[in-house]
TrEMBL record:
Protein name listed in UniProt: Sugar phosphate isomerase/epimerase
Lineage: Bacteria, Bacillati, Bacillota, Bacilli, Bacillales
Keyword Isomerase: yes
Residue ranges of every copy of the Xylose isomerase-like TIM barrel domain listed in the record: 24-252
Pfam name, any one: AP_endonuc_2
Source domain of life: Bacteria
Keyword Isomerase appears in the UniProt entry: yes
UniProt source species: Priestia aryabhattai (Bacillus aryabhattai)
GO molecular function: isomerase activity
InterPro entries per UniProt: IolE/XylAMocC-like, Xyl_isomerase-like_sf, Xyl_isomerase-like_TIM-brl
UniProt entry keywords in alphabetical sequence: Isomerase
């Protein structure tokens, strides 16, 4: 199966949904990954499609004209005191646009509250035909694979899944072998990017690199192939913010370079079958397949 790619919001931070859609089409992407949930960050535009009917019409028109589809929306962030129902309008908008997934992450240290909210978000999304994909973030409360799997197993929702971000996986110190313990059906897409192999020692520097200085796949850094070879073939959402390069090239050309370098890297590192060890101790040959 050919690889499919989505242009993620952070890669072209600040661009509106219609802009992103036209840009993605020109650069050769199959999907866009939008942020119609306003997060109130300093200087961040509000692209809440559910509240801005004109913007919703323009986004629909852009998708109709280009054939670019909506892969996912972000971010159903779970934090202390959040009411999961605040994400309902964005879910409705995503479903209206034909979206598939909603990205979520957990930023409260109250484990029970975090899991209860995540489960409720899954339940709210189910009537829309949407899945909720949990992304762990090394600077958040749920910051590694173990923590994310704890949430998913405890919540136990059939429309819940795990979204691996290459940067976050590496920074959290997770091992590629541990991906074999993840149920295959939890993988529906991933964030594709690269970064320096050295893990920053401070949270501030890690945050800066995370938001401003990720690298093209074909540059020296994380062993990306070792990670994606342990995951079924799924769409790749390219989340690769790099402020300097985006300013130098302009967003459209930068988005094109992100995609081209990703394709070059994946051509040089074709997907491989691998041997994993099953529960009864017998070697089992596991092949990657599209879900």
């Amino acid at each position: 199966m050919p690889n499919q790619f989505s242009l993620a919001y952070l890669t072209v931070l600040g661009c509106s949904p219609p802009e992103m859609t036209y840009m993605a089409a020109k650069a050769g992407y199959d999907f866009v990954s939008l942020r119609p949930i306003y997060m109130g960050l300093p200087g961040e535009p509000n692209y809440a499609l559910a509240e801005n009917k004109q913007l919703m019409r323009e986004t629909k028109s852009a998708m109709s004209e280009t054939g670019v589809k909506l892969l996912d929306i972000e971010l159903a962030r779970i934090y202390e005191g959040v009411n999961p129902k605040r994400y309902l309008p964005a879910m409705e908008a995503a479903a209206e646009l034909g979206g598939r997934h909603v990205l979520s992450s957990i930023w409260t240290d109250d484990r029970n509250f975090g899991i209860e909210c995540f489960a409720e978000i899954c339940d709210l999304a189910k009537p829309f035909g949407l899945t909720i994909e949990l992304e762990y973030v090394p600077i958040a409360s749920v910051y590694n694979l173990k923590g994310a799997m704890d949430v998913l197993h405890t919540a136990n929702r059939e429309n819940a899944g795990l979204m691996i971000d290459i940067h976050h996986f590496h920074r959290s110190g997770d091992k590629v072998e541990d991906l074999e313990d993840v149920p295959r059906e939890w993988f529906r897409y991933l964030h594709l990017c690269n970064a320096s192999a050295e893990i920053p020692s401070s949270k501030e520097e890690m945050t800066r690199v995370l938001r401003e200085e990720r690298l093209y796949l074909n540059e020296e850094g994380i062993d990306v192939a070792s990670i994606i070879n342990r995951i079924p073939q799924v769409p790749y959402s390219i989340e690769l913010p790099n402020v300097k390069r985006a300013n130098e090239l302009g967003y459209e050309e930068f988005a094109r370079q992100c995609l081209q370098t990703a394709k070059q890297y994946l051509d040089k590192h074709p997907r491989k079958k691998y041997v994993s060890h099953d529960a009864v101790g017998q070697d089992q040959l596991r092949f990657h397949s599209t879900r």
